[in-house]
Amino acid sequence: MTQPQWSISRGTPLAEEPGIGALTLGGYLGELAARFGTAEAAVMRDGDTAERWTYDELLQRSMAVARALLACGIGKGTRVGLLVTNRLEFLCGFFGTALAGGVAAPISTFFTASELDEVLAASGCSVLLLERHVLKKDFALMLQELEPDIASATPGQLASTRYPFLRHLALVDSDKGAGAIEGWQTFLQRGESIAPALAEAAAVSLSPSDAATLFFSSGSTGRAKGILSTHRAVCLQLWRWKRWYAIEQAPRTWSANGFFFSGNFSMALGGTLTAGGTLVLQRYFDAPAALALVERERATMLLAWPHQWAQLEAAENYQAADLSSVHYVDANWPIARHPTVNTRWQEPQQAYGCTETFTLISVFASGTPPARAAGSHGLPTAGSVIKIVDPLSGELVPTGERGEIAIKGPTLMLGYIGIPLDETLDEDGFFRTGDGGYLDSAGRLFWEGRLNDIIKTGGANVSPLEIDAVIRECPGVKLNQTVGVADDLLGEVVVTCIVAHEGQSPSAEDVRTFARQKLASYKVPREVLFFSEDELETTGSAKIKTADLRQLAADRIKAPPK
After folding, report:
1. How far apart are the first and last CA of the chain?
2. Residue 301: helix, strand or coil by DSSP?
3. Residue ranges with strand state E in 412-476
4. Which of 20, 33, 103, 481 minimizes the number of CB atoms within 10 Å of its CB?
5. pLDDT tens, position by position, 436-476
6. Separation of alpha carbons 85 and 477, rounded Å
7. Looking at the domain 455-558, which fold is it?
C-alpha cells in the first residue's frame, strides 16, 4: 500500500528570490531615494493647487519627523499612532517612525469614538499623529471627549490614566494646536534639537527582525486584533509587489482606500514606490472627484474595492472622463469597459493572504497563463510553507483533501498584542488561519472560504461578534445574530437577523441608526431582518445556527416583497 502524499507546499528559497533590496523600512526608503531621487513620489491635490514630493523630499521630510519623534523621547520599539487619511503626512509619518526606531500603528479614520478608544488603549502608543478634520469627524474633539485631560494638558505633559503611555499628540493638518495636541510645525520644530547624525545612527542600528508596524484587523473574538510585523516582513512584501504586478513602466497610482489597511498599504506603496512611480493621493473616496483626479494626474494604475467600481460607473462625469492614461486595471473589471480605457493587463487575482502575513502568502503574478494557475490561489511565496490540516486534530491531511489552511514564513507576524505566541501558533510554528481549502499535487493552494464566521465585505474583514455585541444593546432587540450573505458587488453584505422583544417592534432603520453610533460605516448592517422566535432554530444557549441562518437570510433577501 503506497503512503499518501501529504498536503504541504513550500515556496522557493528566500535567498533565491529576485528583486529584494534593503530589509528595514529606513533602508528601503533610502534605497528608493538613491535610485529615483528627483522623480515624483507622491502628489496631493487641493482643488487647482497640488503639493508634490520627490523621493528625495520624502526621505528628507521623513527624517524631519524621525528627529521630532526622537526629541519626544521615543526609543526602539515605541509605538506611534497614525490616525491619518491617505495624505503626504501619512507617508512621512510612517517612514519617520520607522527611521526613528518606532513601531508605526496606523489607525482607521472610519472608527467611531468607542472603536478609537479601544484601539488607542490597546496599542499603547506614546505618540499620536492625527488628522483633525475627516469628513464630518473632528478627531481632536473626539479625543478630548474620551479623555478630558487632552483638552487641558500642556503638549508633551499628558498623564492619562485612560491612555497611560500616551504623552505627545500632534495634528498633521493644522499648525494650530488644541490643549495637549500641538500643531504640525510646532511638532516638527522639536526635531531641531536632535542632530541629523543621531537620527541617521538610530535608523542604521535597526535590524530586519525588529518590530516595525502594528496594524489592526477584526477578529473572530469580536475585538480588534493588533498584529505586529517586522521590518523584514513589510519590506519583503513592498519589494515583491512590483514583480507580482508585472510593472513595466513606473505607475501613477490612484487609491482612496486607507493605508491603515495592510493590503492597500502594501499594494499601493509596493506596486508604486518600488517601481519609482507616483502615488496620486485622495484622502477619502468620492467617485466624481476620483475620476477628475485620475484624468488630471494621468493616473495609470487604479486600486479600488468592488463596490467603488460601481460608484465610479454611476458618477455623473464617468462617460465624459478621459481615462486613456489608465493601463494597470484588470481587463475584466467594470472600468475596463470605459470607452477611453484600453488594457489587457490582468491583476494577480490568483492569490491568498491576510494581515497576519502582511498580505500575500501564495500568489501567481500578473500574466500567469490560466493553464498554470488552474483556478487556484497560487503557490507559496519565497521562503513560505503552507499545509492543510484537519481542523479538529491539527494533523496533516493527504493531498487534495480539504481542511484548514496553516501557514508560516518570513512575513508571518511576530504575534497579536496581548496574546502569548504559543497560543497563536501550533507546535511546529504554523499559524492556523481558520480558512478552509486544499493543495493539489503541484503544490497550488485552493482557498474555499472561512471555517469561522468572519465577514469579508468590500475588501474589509468584519467580525459578526463585534456587531452582535452592539446591536444586542439596541432597544427592542431580544436575540440577534449577524452573518455575511454573498453579494456580487461587495463579496458579502453584512446582514443582522433579529428577534424582537414581545410587544416591541424596532424598525430596520432604528437598528442601523443605533449601530452607526458605535460602528464604522462598513460594519453597519446593510440588511436588518426580523424573525419570530419559532422561525429560527436555536441551541440551548439561544445561539442561532450560523450556516442555517445564512441561507435563511439569503432566501429572505431574494424573496419578492409582499
Report:
1. 61
2. strand
3. 415-416, 431-439, 445-450, 455-457, 460-462
4. 20
5. 889 999 999 999 877 767 788 887 778 787 888 899 899 99
6. 35
7. GMP Synthetase; Chain A, domain 3 (3.30.300)
Rounded CA-CA distance 302/309 in Å is 10
Query: Which residue type sits at 410?
Result: P
**pLDDT digits 0-9 by tens, 312-345:** 999 999 999 999 999 999 998 889 999 999 999 9
- Which CATH number is associated with domain 8-12+352-450? 2.30.38.10
Q: CB under 8 Å, gap of 24 or more: what pairs does 27-36 form?
A: 27/203, 27/235, 28/235, 28/238, 28/239, 29/58, 29/59, 29/62, 29/95, 29/98, 29/99, 30/59, 30/203, 32/59, 32/273, 32/274, 32/276, 33/58, 33/59, 35/276, 36/276
The x, y and z cell numbers of residue 263, run together, are 493590503
Separation CA 417–CA 123 (nearest Å): 8
CATH architecture type of domain 23-235: 3-Layer(aba) Sandwich (3.40)
**Residue extent(s) of CATH 2.30.38.10 domains in the chain:** 8-12+352-450
Tell me how crowded residue 505 is: count the other CB atoms within 10 A of its CB.
Answer: 9
Report d(CA 432, CA 426) in Å as an integer: 7
Q: What pTM was estimated for this model as a whole?
A: 0.86
Q: How far apart are the C-alpha atoms of 495 and 498, rounded to whole Å?
A: 10
